[in-house]
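Hi R.,

Here's the chain you asked about this morning:
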Amino acid sequence: MLGSKGRMNDHVLARIKGGLIVSCQALPDEPLHSSYIMARMAYAAMLGGAKGIRANTGADISEIKKAAALPVIGIVKRDYDDSPVYITPTMPEVDELIGCGAEIIAMDATARRRPGGEGLGDFFRRVKEKYPQQLFMADCATFSEGMEAALLGFDLIGTTLCGYTDESRGAKVPDFRLLTGLVGQCGRPVIAEGGIWSPAELRRVMECGVHAAVVGSAITRPMLITEHFVKAIG
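And here is the predicted structure, written out as tokens:
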């Protein structure tokens, strides 16, 4: 029998099913870096019909939750000298996301070693022991990583890092073959993320049978959007 937290998690998954999740992020070196601006971005996305928000840092998420009544996929991007993993790489980042109430916590779920040399399996076991009722999303780059994340017990499998790791370098995103393979075989809801720049691509992604799709740069990063258009006439 499901407890109240289990029912809440099912409700979160149902709310985002078949919908668009808008990524509202700006790093410190970007023009729109501001928790206030990200909250307004999220509010605009909600008014436009988004079913969820993906956001970075507890500070941004706390402000976003005041402005937009949508489920949040939370991450904390943090660099460590001894690892290339930077999306929710260690327990303090997970703790930060729990503290701000992110409904779903996403983390790098690639085969790369985390800070301190820890592997994903050991790290995720520690996380699940500490927060057994929390929803977790695996940010993967390859099919094998997605399958491994599903075996480890991640609630959602994402294609976020496809094209960003040595193993996936050069992949064309969105990777429709990767999406179709994961949907058919991983046994978990799949979240499409990465490289979706047009409504036509979004429709094709959804036709792969994914649970939901994340679009970020094409909606909320005007500097990159401008560059995209400038390249077309350059």
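One quick note: The first helix runs from residue 4 to 16.

Cheers,
M.
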